[in-house]
Amino acid sequence: MSGDDELVAARKERDREVARRQVLAKANNLLDRELFRARLTGEILKAAEEGTDLDGFCVCLFELITRVVRVRWLGIAAGEGRWFHPAASPVGQALLEDVQAGRGGSDGAFVFTFQRGGQTLGHLVCLPFTTAFPASELELMQDLARRATPILERNLLIRRLEELATFQADFAHMLGHDLRSPLTGVIASLSALALPELAANEALRGQMIKTALDSAHLANAMIGDLLDVAKSEAGKVVIDRDPVDLAALAATALELQQPVAGMKGLALVLEAPDDLPRVAGEETKLMRVIANLTSNALKYTQRGGVLVRLWVEGDEVHMVVADTGIGVPAEAQPHLFEKFFQVGGRQRKKLGGTGLGLTFCKQMVEAHGGRLWLASPSTLAADHGLAPKVPQPGTAFHLSLPVMAG
User: What one-character DSSP code corresponds to residue 233?
Assistant: First the structure.
C-alpha cells in the first residue's frame, strides 16, 4: 500500500472514530438528560407535594422549570389566584388572562392547561427569550406540567377545605355574636313591656315596641342576606329579564333613605339623564343592590352626604354611589366582597352587620352580566359640593350593567 493510500485509510479511520464518539456522546447526553430530568423532577415535585398551599406549589414548579429551561417569564393561574415569576410582564400577564378567558395562546409561548377528570384546574404560560422554545424544551415542560397536575389538584382541594373551615368559623361567629345583638334588643324591649310600671307610660311603651320591631327587622335582614348568598353560590338564583329603569330605582332607594339622612344631617343627591336606557334584569334584586349600597354609604358617613350618579358609556349603564365617609383602608379593599368580611376599627364595629351585604351585591350584579367595584379614597361626592368641614377619605362604589338589547 502506497503512502497516499495509507493516508486516506488513516483519515477514514479517524473520521469513523469521530463519528463513533459523536454517537456515544449523544447517547450519553441523552441518558444524562433523562436521568437529570427524572432526578430533578422527583426532587422538586416531592418538595411541592410536601407543601400544603398553592404558593409553595407554584414556587417549586417555577424553580423546576427555570433550572432546566431558559425562560423570559412564567405565570400560573389556578383557582382565583395568579402567580408570576421572575418578574411582572404586561405581555405575559395579558397572555395569561387571554388563556384563562379561552381566547387561545400566542406564537412562541408555551401554554399548558392543567386538567383532571375533564375539569380545568388552571393554566401555565411560559415566554421564551427567543422567538420560540426548542422542541426538546417544549417536551420537557409538557412532561413536568403533566406530572405536576395531581399535586395542583390536591393543593386546590386543600385551599378549598381551608376556606370552608374559615367560612364555618365565621358563620358560627355571626350566629353567636352578630345575630345575638338584634335578638337581645327584641328580648330586652319585650321584657320591659311586661313591667307593670310601663303600663301607663304610652310614650315609653311605643319606644319599646319600635326598638323590638327594628331589632327583629335587622335580624330578619341578616338571615335574608345569608340565604340569598347561599342560593347564589349554589346556582339557584334565577334572574327574570325585564326592562328596568335604574334611575327610578335609585330615586326610590334615596327616598327610602331620606329619614336616616335627615336624622344625621346628610345630603342625598341624585343625578341621571332623562333618556337613560333600560337594562335587562329583575327589579326587586337590583333594587336591593342599590338600597344596600346607599344604606352602606349613609352608615359610614357622618358629615357631608351621598351622591348617586348614572350615565351611559358605550353599551353599558354606569352608576356610582359616592360618599364623604370614612373610606376603606387599602389593606381591606381586596377582601371587601368576601363573605363575612368586615373592616376593622372601633367605629365600624359599632355599626354592626353580617358582612354579607356587599357579597350579595356583587353576586347579584354579576348574575345580571354586570360589574361592581370600589374606589377609595374617592372625592367624587366631595367635588360635588358635599364635602364636610372636616374632609374624610370618601368611598365610591361603581356599578355597570349592559344596556337592554332592542
Answer: H
pLDDT recorded at residue 200: 79
Number of domains in the chain: 3
For 147, the domain range is 3-160
- Predicted local confidence at residue 141, as pLDDT: 86
Q: E-assigned strands of 79-118?
A: 81-85, 110-116
Helix H or strand E encompassing 340 = none
Domain shared by 229 and 252, yes or no: no
Q: CA–CA separation, 96 vs 81, rounded Å? A: 12
Region for 337 from its dihedrals, namely left if φ exceeds 0, alpha if ψ lies in -120 to 50, beta otherwise: alpha
Task: For the full predicted model, state whether its pTM sits above 0.70.
Answer: no
92/98 Cα distance (integer angstroms):
10
Beginning with the edge strand found earlier in the chain, give each strand of the sheet holding 71-78 in spatial order: 81-85, 71-78, 119-128, 110-116
Whether residue 352 is found in the same domain as residue 296: yes
Write out the three cell numbers for 24: 456515544
CA distances from 360 to 204, 274, 295, 364, 405 (A): 37, 29, 14, 6, 26
Using CA atoms, how far apart are residues 225 and 223, in angstroms rounded to an integer?
A: 5
Angle among Cα 85, 88, 93 to the nearest 5 degrees reads 95
Residue of 54, 45, 50 whose CA lies nearest to 145:
45
| Mean pLDDT per 10-residue interval, the chain, length 406 residues | 72 77 65 68 68 77 81 85 78 83 76 88 88 85 87 84 71 62 77 81 83 76 69 69 92 85 90 93 86 88 92 93 89 76 49 66 88 88 80 89 86
Other CB atoms within a 10 A radius of the CB of residue 146 amount to: 12
Cell of 27: 447517547
Provide the grid cell at 78.
389556578
pLDDT for the residue 329 = 85
Cell numbers found for residue 373? 367595584
Same domain, 224 and 313: no
End-of-domain residue from the set 111, 133, 160: 160
Name the grid cell of 338: 368576601
Instruction: Give the number of other CB atoms < 10 A from CB of residue 18.
Output: 10
Q: How many residues does the chain have?
A: 406
Instruction: Report d(CA 160, CA 372) in Å as an integer.
Output: 24
Residue type present at position 73: W
Distances (CA, A) of 244 to 54, 278, 312: 42, 5, 14
Identify the residue whose cell numbers are 346628610.
266
For residue 74, the cross-strand partners are 85, 126
